[in-house]
Structure formats: C-alpha cells, structure tokens
Amino acid sequence: MEKITGYVHSLESFGSVDGPGVRYVIFLSGCAMRCQFCHNPDTWEMKSGQPYTADQLLEKACRYRTYWKQKGGITVSGGEPLLQIDFVTELFRKAQEKGIHTTLDTSANPFTTKEPFYSKWKELMQYTDLILLDIKHIDPEGHLELTGQPNDNILAMARELSDMGKPVWIRHVLVPERNDKDEYLYRLADFIHTLKNVERVEVLPYHTLGVFKWENLGIPYPLEGIKPPTKERVENAERVLGAGAFAKEINRMIGISSSLYSGRSIVKKKRA
C-alpha cells in the first residue's frame, strides 16, 4: 500500500495559541484563499512544502510529548489542511491511537457535501478532537472581497459541526475598513448564537508582521496603508462576540463555565 505524503510548510515545537495547552503545530502547504491580511502567503503553493509521512511527523512530535501534559497535543494548520484531507486523516487516526489530542485549524474553504470529499470529511471528524474555525467575514460580498472566495460553504460546515456536536473555537481576524463594522460583528454574533458547539471565540487583531513576505514574493500588498485596529475596536469586537476577558465575565455573571453565547445579550449594545 502506497504511503500517503503530506506537504509541510513549517513546524512549531511549542505552540501556545493554536488550541489547548502546549501544542506541536504542523503548518501544511497549500491554500486556495487569498486573504488580503494573510501573514503566510508563502504557504499558498502546496508542492512547495517538505514531504512527510504521518509516521515521520508523529515521531518528531512525540519527542515533545512530556511538555504537553494533559491538555496539549498536535494541531494541524496551514495553509489550508483540508486540501490534504487524506493525509490529515491518517495523521490524526494514528495520533489518536497513541492517545494524542488532535486539533484542526481550518478556514473550511474546501468544504462541500459533494462526494468524495464529504465522506472523507466525516471520517476525518471521527479523529478530530477540536476545530479552530476561522470565519473571516460574515457578509458574502465582504468575504469575497477580503478572501477571494465565497463563504456559504464555510458557514455550512459550521452548521454541520454544530449538528454533530464537534467542539469548536471560532476565530475572527479583525480588519479595519473590511470587517470591523458593528453591523458585521452583530451579524456574526447572531450566526454564532445559532451554533450549539462553540466553546470559545477569539478576536485576532489584524497586524502587518507578514508584509515583508508579500514583498519578497513580489506580490502587491492589498491592505497597504491600513493600520491594525485600535484597542477600543478590539475590545468592542470582543464585547459583541463574547470573546476574551468579556467571555469570562459573562460566564461569571451567569454561573456557567464554558458556553459563551447564552449570555451574549447581556453585553450586546445598540448597533452603531
């Protein structure tokens, strides 16, 4: 039987922001989205990555297992890992056989209910403990402008994950002049409120740390002149979406430990 090969852009031994605990983070190559704020445009081409088998990656990852303790594990990010779904499925299956917690960081852009992808996706979900789901923009036209891709299938995958009860953390990159409008934030909050499986929301402020990569690749940077959001706008987004410190305060006030959204209306303000 031919071994499945994955194309890896880079590896991070001690990740602390891509899932619970200390993570071994695997950044796969390949992505069809062209997010205007992307800080890793060098991951877009799949075959530019280093080829690995699942066993090779697990051998490298397990060298750090003593640091993971009970909460840590491996996270597969990108690029877009669902473009290499066969490889990720084999990697996660073998990881779970070893008792390793698995997290998938995805934009959900490749998702479809058409075959053969849909059956492969459902199999992958059997071996996935947690999804970090990036929702770039709730508005269809705004999403198309920001990423070059539609968002209907992304929202459809979010609903599928909710129906199956798969734990999800929602991530939202806050970009001035693109998605940082109260109207969009409240629409996103309303959508998240329909989901039954969201454990956490993270607002990630747009930054310009990856601009040099665009320059090195000779690609014009589409957000030239746009500065990162202010502290006030980040806090506003966290308030509306029930993220960060505001989520902890909501949970304290209503006496729950994990669900962020049943208390969202407590902090919901009048739309600007």
Walk me through the structure.
The protein has one domain: Alpha-Beta Barrel (TIM Barrel). The model is unreliable at 253-272 (pLDDT under 50). By secondary structure, it is of the alpha/beta class. It has an 8-stranded mixed sheet with strand order 3-1-2-4-5-6-7-8. It contains 11 helices and 8 strands.
List the main descriptive attributes of the protein structure presented here.
eight-stranded mixed beta sheet, TIM Barrel, 272 residues
Quickly give the structural class: alpha/beta
Total strands: 8
The oligomeric status of these chains comes to single chain
Q: pLDDT average, as an integer?
A: 91
The main β sheet shows up as: 8 strands, mixed
How large is the count of helical segments? 11
What's the CATH H-level superfamily name?
Answer: Aldolase class I
